[in-house]
From TrEMBL:
Name this polypeptide is given: Chemotaxis protein methyltransferase WspC
Keyword DNA-binding on entry: no
Biological process per Gene Ontology, one example term: methylation
Positions in coiled-coil regions: none
Keyword S-adenosyl-L-methionine: yes
Domain CheR-type methyltransferase, residue spans: 1-177
UniProt entry keywords in alphabetical sequence: Methyltransferase, S-adenosyl-L-methionine, TPR repeat, Transferase
């Protein structure tokens, strides 16, 4: 399975969490060895380079970590090693890292040598039995791959990922991929929107029941403008009761409530509580105006339950409400590519690229 749709700092909260958790882990190593990090599939290099940049931004020295990046596609590996990227790889409202870690060249932006030196690329297949025999890593990134496999393959892949993650390590996954991890003895770190998991203590590793199949939601409706970064929107800042404003305008209060509900949905999905997250989405659609982000989550949740046609329908509804919802574009493009509809996938990828270019020009 080749998943070429990627960009720098996809799910930015994961990288913020990475910086904090990596510093803690490095302190516990006390200089005994560098932090070992794995990115797979690494595609064209945006994820492993983002890992290195996030660690630099967190104050980690280049000598304190090493990133191994693995992908099944030699073409993707070659592009990653080349390290030159177009505007489509730079999405979201904050691309200030491009000034720090790239320099312009004729056909795009080239990654800095300081970042390149921290990442080692190699071909490999997650389903290759030899991979499971690798020395375990402190941190593993494997995001938005497992949802495209059938349930049996998902279980096998997660067991391999668990083997590749040290007992005291961290596994970062995609937003809707957590439901199988509890069953194999992994639990969420509890950091909102980080999608990071640890090995559960032995007495806590109780298999989770299979997610309940919930009826498809009633005719949906759209998302309050989702942020450009395309994960669940950042929750509205919380203030203690002592400092809460005495009165809020009705519109501001409504927006705050919507943000809180969307944040709750993201949290449930992050913890692998698929049925509860789906039910929260359905309640949202019954009580609020429809928003793209809710349909995006319903699409992800449907994918993880193996309901691919339903997932496609939800992504299309998200895009009807918000035509440049980048995560929905990426997920739907990947689904179409997996089904052999390369033309349809390419159209969506081009559409995402046009949106990213437009954003970059503002």
């Amino acid at each position: 399975m080749i998943v070429p749709e990627t960009w720098f700092f996809r799910y930015p909260e994961s990288f913020l969490s990475l910086g904090m958790l990596a510093r803690e882990r490095i302190a516990s190593l006390a200089g005994a060895r560098p932090l070992r990090i794995l990115s797979l599939p690494c595609s064209t290099g945006e994820e492993p380079y983002s890992i290195a940049m996030a660690l630099f931004d967190a104050g980690v020295d280049a000598r304190q970590f090493k990133v191994d990046a693995i992908d099944i596609s030699p073409v993707s590996i070659a592009k990653a090693e080349h390290g030159v990227y177009g505007k489509n790889s730079f999405r979201g409202s904050d691309i200030s890292y491009r000034e720090r870690y790239f320099h312009p060249v004729a056909d795009g932006f080239e990654i800095a040598d300081s970042v390149r030196a921290c990442v080692s690329f190699q071909p490999g297949n997650l389903l290759d039995p030899k991979l499971a025999s690798h020395v375990a890593y402190d941190i593993v990134f494997c995001r938005n791959l497992v949802i495209y496999f059938d349930r049996q393959t998902q279980q096998h892949v997660f067991k391999v990922l668990k083997q590749l993650t040290r007992e005291d390590g961290l596994l970062f996954i995609g937003p809707a991929e957590g439901n199988l991890l509890a069953a194999i003895g992994m639990r969420s770190t509890g950091i909102a929107q980080s999608f990071a998991f640890r090995h559960a203590p032995v007495d806590a590793a109780v298999p989770a029941p299979a997610p309940k199949q919930v009826a498809a939601p009633v005719a949906p409706r759209p998302v309050v403008e989702a942020p450009a970064r395309a994960v669940a929107p950042r929750p509205a800042p919380r203030t203690s009761a002592a400092f809460a404003p005495i009165a809020k305008p009705v519109a501001a209060q409504a927006n705050s409530e919507v943000s809180a509900v969307l944040d709750k949905i993201a949290g449930l999905a992050n913890e692998g509580k698929t049925a509860e997250a789906r039910a929260a989405c359905e309640r949202y659609l019954q009580q609020h105006e429809p928003v793209a982000q809710v349909f995006y989550w319903l699409g992800l949740l449907s994918e993880v339950e193996g309901r691919v046609p339903q997932a496609q329908g939800f992504y299309r509804k998200a895009l009807y409400l918000q035509p440049q919802h980048s995560e929905s574009l990426a997920q739907l493009a990947a689904l179409l590519a997996a089904q052999g509809d390369t033309a349809g996938a390419r159209r969506l990828q081009d559409r995402a690229a046009r949106g990213a270019n437009k954003q970059g020009n503002h």
